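Please review this one:
***
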Amino acid sequence: MLRILESDDFQYLRTQKGYTPAMGRRLRNERADAFVGYLKMLQVDFNRVATALELMVAQSSHDRPELASALVHRRLTFACGMLEVRVRIALFRAGFHGVDAAALIRMFDGLRCELCEVMPAYSPAMG
C-alpha cells in the first residue's frame, strides 16, 4: 500500500502515447482515495489495540503508570502523524509527491507487539 502513491507509475504514464493530464489527475485521485481508505482502516486498528491496552491497564490490580503514559503519548503521536499524512495526501492530489505513511505503520506495529507481550501475562485477578 505504501507504494501506491510513489511517483514512478505517474512518470511512466506521462511517457505513454495518448496520455493526457486528465488521466494523470484521475489516477492520482483514485490512488489517493484508496490510500485514504487504507488509512481509515489503520486508524481503526490502532484505536482498537490502544483501547485493549487501556482496558488492561484499567483492570490490572497493579498500577502501570508507565504504560498508561506511553499509551497517551502513542495516541498523540499517531494522531499527529495521521494529520501530517492527510495533509500530504491533499498535496499529492494537487500534484506534489512525498506521502510516506511508514512511520504510522511502525507505530501501529509497535503498539500491536506491546499488546502481544502484555496479553499472555494479563489476568484481571493477577494483574
